[in-house]
Amino acid sequence: MSTATPSLSPADRAAHDKASFVRRRILAEFSAGDPRGSWPAEEFAAEQRRAGVPAEVVMDLAGDRFLVIVRTAQLAVAA
After folding, report:
1. Rounded CA separation 72/55 (Å)
2. Nearest-CA neighbor of 56 among 68, 44, 64, 48?
3. Could you give the CA distance from residue 47 to residue 28 in angstroms, rounded to a whole number?
4. Are strands 65-71 and 55-60 parallel, antiparallel or unpaired?
5. What is the pLDDT of residue 2?
6. pLDDT tens track for 27-67
7. In which order are the strands placed within the sheet that holds 55-60?
8. How far apart are CA 19 and CA 68, in angstroms?
């Protein structure tokens, strides 16, 4: 069975790409090997949130580090 993908116009492709990806801005990074674990990253993110920046902490497994990020676009959710 073949799984053909429909051809999208350039405008449709651009709209799909914009809605399908979460874009992130990295504010800071902390080593996962820190004796305090993720606490330094969590404390930094809390400071950013108190300042009005919607920061969150994510783990970068490949880089063995904690990242403090801000999402600049949300995933599109089909209703």
Report:
1. 11
2. 68
3. 12
4. antiparallel
5. 43
6. 999 999 999 999 999 999 999 999 999 999 999 999 999 99
7. 24-31, 65-71, 55-60
8. 22
Task: Confirm whether pTM is higher than 0.70.
Answer: no
Report the C-alpha gap between 15 and 79 in whole angstroms.
17
Q: Are the CB atoms for 55 and 48 separated by under 8 Å?
A: yes
Beta bridge partners of residue 69, listed in sequence order: 26, 56
SS3 at position 50 = helix
Do residues 72 and 24 make contact, with C-beta atoms less than 8 angstroms apart? yes
Give the largest Cα separation in the chain, rounded.
Answer: 54
Examine the pLDDT at 25 and tell me if it is beyond 70.
yes
Strand partners, 30: 66
